[in-house]
Design a protein that fits this description.
The chain is globular, with a radius of gyration of 22 Å. It contains 18 helices and 8 strands. The relative contact order is 0.15. The longest helix has 26 residues. 44% of the residues lie in helices and 6% in strands. By secondary structure, it is mainly alpha-helical. Helix 8 packs antiparallel against helix 9 and helix 9 runs antiparallel to helix 10.
């Protein structure tokens, strides 16, 4: 594969440039095989920091991987001057996207996977005194590899459940560097199995919590809870969520909720996040600048999602008025969830509130409706203390859980995946897509709910196949 062949050659070079002075203590290793380049715990830590830094990239969690599925959903509408993800917001994208979004996401996520693979495949022998530290770092690498494959299969493969046996095309599973490899796409079932296996391996190795900028056992279980939810594996989703909720501490208070978003620190309920520092951030290419007037301001919150929020709900404060937008279909409201003008907002990947709502849905599907209502209200009443109790059952209860998740996780890159796993189309009642593009109502199923495989990848690898509907 063209984009996988050169990844190892650039791993440590890029890492040195992006991860600070710690890299200066390690000899350059961009031309050495993993078993020579990575020999000590410090070497492992260095390369692993490079894998984490890859998540900051503006084509991964730094911007597009979060932005694109949201602009394709019913939570976001494009501003009149929208440009950077315009084709995908309008469901008019293809392999010739001028911003190369399909190619760049593919490239950057696989580079993150390959950086993790350097750690996983190093087989470093360390003194017994630091074995636990080494195990923790290797476990984090397995978790990062799992996250990368899971993210790729979501954005380039139709959702789990699209076919009865999930044999439809996913993405190549890459577990080692091979410059001559020309892998075919694994099925979605195979990718999910590999991701779950990697996370279980990670759980067998990790033994520490190094902070929200690093994977921990709790964060790995939160990711597993999400994956099992996507598979409709309600029992395993509940089991993982039970463990996370028991060990993660409580939800952020109502009083601190908005401040945690706006003060640039760790956001509310964060279990794992991509941290952007004063010196290590995407600046003008950051996620938040796609929404704020001080940035590009390309995208606006839809009335569809805003109107779900009660005026007494503290989450209403995650919007701000901007009289320059122009009114009409565009309104005067902006997203204020990532307000830093320098692009230094952290990007949440896994949050405790999501885990509560995962458990709520799992409990509802398992018939434990009282427990489901309790979890739903834990999230809702935190944000809206005067919220009336939920007494719904059956589908009405599931609808309430979906509503709460839509509000709580708005603009965090979840909404499209939630619609897909429930086999729902995208209905934009508050739509600013030009009428001739037919982007206001996209019925399920549709090939455009996933991105095309990059043409550069197809040209380089004869075993690669394109997604249906793209040429």
């Amino acid at each position: 594969m063209k984009h996988l062949k050169y990844f190892f050659l650039t791993i440590c070079t890029v890492a040195v440039l992006s991860c600070g002075e710690e890299f200066l203590d390690v000899n350059p290793s961009d031309s050495l095989p993993p078993d020579v380049a990575v020999q000590t715990v410090d070497d492992i830590r260095t390369v692993l920091l490079g894998a984490y830094s890859q998540l900051q990239n503006s084509d991964y969690y730094g911007r597009y991987f979060v932005l694109v599925p949201d602009v394709m959903s019913d939570d976001v509408k494009q501003n009149s001057q929208a440009n950077r993800a315009k084709d995908w917001a309008e469901y008019n994208g293809g392999v010739n996207d001028i911003h190369a979004i399909p190619e760049e996401i593919w490239t950057e996520v696989y580079e993150a996977i390959n950086r993790a693979n350097v750690v996983i495949n190093a087989n470093v022998e360390v003194p017994a005194a630091v074995q636990a530290d080494a195990d923790q770092l290797v476990g984090e690498a397995y978790a990062l590899r799992a996250l990368g494959h899971f993210d790729l299969v979501r954005i380039y493969g139709q959702h789990y459940g699209f076919t009865s046996d999930n044999s439809h095309p996913g993405v190549p599973i890459v577990t080692e560097f091979d410059p001559a490899a020309e892998p075919a796409r694994n099925s979605v079932a195979e990718v999910y199995n590999a991701v779950i296996a990697d996370l279980n391996t990670a759980l067998g190795l990790m033994n520490q919590n190094r902070g929200t900028g690093f994977f921990s056992p709790t964060a790995a279980r939160a990711l597993l809870a999400r994956i099992y939810l996507y598979q409709s594996d309600w029992n395993n989703a509940k089991t993982m969520a039970d463990n996370v909720i028991a060990n993660a501490g409580g939800l952020t208070s109502n009083e601190d909720y908005v401040a945690r978003w706006k003060d640039r620190g760790t956001g509310p309920d964060v279990l794992f996040e991509v941290i952007n520092t004063d010196t290590d951030n995407n600046g003008s290419n950051a996620l938040g600048r796609m929404y704020i007037n001080e940035g590009y301001g390309d995208y606006l919150p839809s009335d569809d999602v805003y109107n779900l929020i009660d005026p007494e709900d503290v989450r209403i404060e995650l919007f701000k008025i901007d009289s320059t937008i122009g009114g009409g279909d565009f309104g005067y409201r902006r997203v204020d969830k990532y307000p830093d003008q320098e692009g230094r907002d952290n990007t949440p990947v896994l949050r405790l509130a999501e885990t509560y709502l995962i458990r709520a849905e799992a409990n509802a599907m398992l018939g434990n409706e009282a427990a489901a209502r309790d979890d739903l209200m834990a999230v809702r009443s935190r944000a809206w203390p005067t919220a009336p109790a939920v007494n719904a059952s059956g589908q009405a209860l599931l609808d309430e859980i979906e509503r709460e998740k839509r509000i709580e996780l708005m603009f965090e890159g979840h909404r499209l995946w939630e619609l897909m796993r429930k086999k729902k189309g995208v209905i934009r009642n508050n739509c600013t897509v030009p009428p001739d593009l037919n982007g206001c109502e996209i019925n399920y199923p549709d090939h455009r709910f996933v991105l095309p495989i990059p043409k550069e990848e197809l040209n380089a690898n004869p075993n690669m196949t394109q997604n249906e509907g793209y040429s």
